# Entry
Amino acid sequence: QVNVEESGGGSAQAGGSLRLSCATSGWTRTNFCMAWFRQAPGKEREAVAAIDSDGTISYADSVKGRFTISQGDAKNTLILQMDSLKAEDTAMYYCAATWACGRGWAAAKVYGYWGQGTQVTVSS
# Structure
């Protein structure tokens, strides 16, 4: 059984920074694609960034230049460094995983494993 768990998040002022971490366990395959999604109240869940099994990194236009996704030191861990935060970044952030995502990285249906989410609140 694959488990996905997020940590980090919290509150920050606009212009500040936060760091999210995601750890997976029970992953038996070598390849993987991991991503961050977010969902604000009353809005659809949207993709933020992803790292595919071949190392390809993708970002949503809304976070390019402000957020950085990277693999953690431990195997199958994921980091999202969020800088220059804006009030509109306020949302529940979810970590997601699958075997490979390719061009479909931004589609939630591609991912079979999800964490419970961690709240990020940015005040202006």
